[in-house]
Every structure is written in C-alpha cells, then in structure tokens.
Write a structure and sequence with these properties.
This protein is α+β, with helices and mostly antiparallel strands. It has one domain: 2-Layer Sandwich (HIT family, subunit A), CATH 3.30.428.10. It has two helices and five strands. It has a five-stranded antiparallel sheet, covered by helices on one side.
Length: 111
C-alpha cells in the first residue's frame, strides 16, 4: 500500500502547484521553497518512492527525468543548472516520491 505524498496530490491537482511542464510521463513544477532563482521539481507519473527503490523495471525513470529536464532547459535557453536526487531521510529526502531537483541562477522565460 503506497502512502500518498504531497506530490501525489499535486499530480492529481488536489493541491495547487506552479506547473511549468507536463507530458505523458512527467510533471514539473516550481519548488515551494526555492533554493535558487529557478528551482523546479520533475516527478514521474509512474510512482517510485526513491532512488533507493529503483529496480531493473523502473531503472529508466531517473534517466527519463534527466532527459526531460535537459530538454526543458534547452527550450528555456537555460545554459547552467544543477540536477539533484536526494536519497532517503539521511540524504535529505523529505518527500517520499522520487523527484529530480532542477536548480539554476538563470530565470525562466514567461511560460
Ligand atoms: P526533498 O527534500 O524531498 O528532496 O525535496 C522536497 C522538495 O519539495 C523541497 O524542496 C520542498 O520545498 C518541496 N515541497 C514540499 N512541499 C511542497 C508543496 O506542497 N509544493 C511544492 N511546490 N513544493 C513542495
């Protein structure tokens, strides 16, 4: 049984978020407590709790998130950014729904 997280509620639109990108596989939205000028979170629509839970069946998901972030950055003209996965409580992961942090000191264009 999956314990629903705040990101499940953002995905189902029960909780509002500032969504910047969506397709069949991912949702990307602004982090509510930004740690850079641009701080986004990319989440897969297929639930995985953490990098620690990735299996051979779901191993494509982290790479897919990175590719979506890379394409999003290209479309936005953002040249420099940091991508981070926090893994487990000891790794700073607070929300147990796999997510890729995207941080940049470059601003988003109006979406
Ligand atoms: P973690 O520490 O789990 O890697 O990162 C979770 C991130 O989710 C944090 O940077 C936190 O600010 C962000 N966050 C937590 N709750 C919400 C929320 O309700 N809305 C949005 N947009 N971001 C959230």
């Amino acid at each position: 049984m999956v314990e629903p997280t705040i990101f499940h509620s953002i995905l189902s639109r029960e909780v509002p978020a500032s969504i910047v990108y969506e397709d069949d596989e991912v949702l990307a939205f602004k982090d509510i407590h930004p740690k850079a000028k641009t701080h986004l979170l990319f989440i897969p629509k297929h639930f995985v709790a953490s990098i620690a839970d990735v299996t051979p069946e779901t191993a494509h998901i982290p790479g897919m998130l990175i590719l979506k972030a890379q394409r999003f950055a290209q479309e936005q003209g953002i040249k420099g950014y940091r991508l981070t996965f926090h893994v487990g409580k000891g790794g700073g992961q607070e929300v147990m729904y796999l997510h890729l942090h995207f941080l940049s000191e470059e601003k988003l264009k109006a979406l």
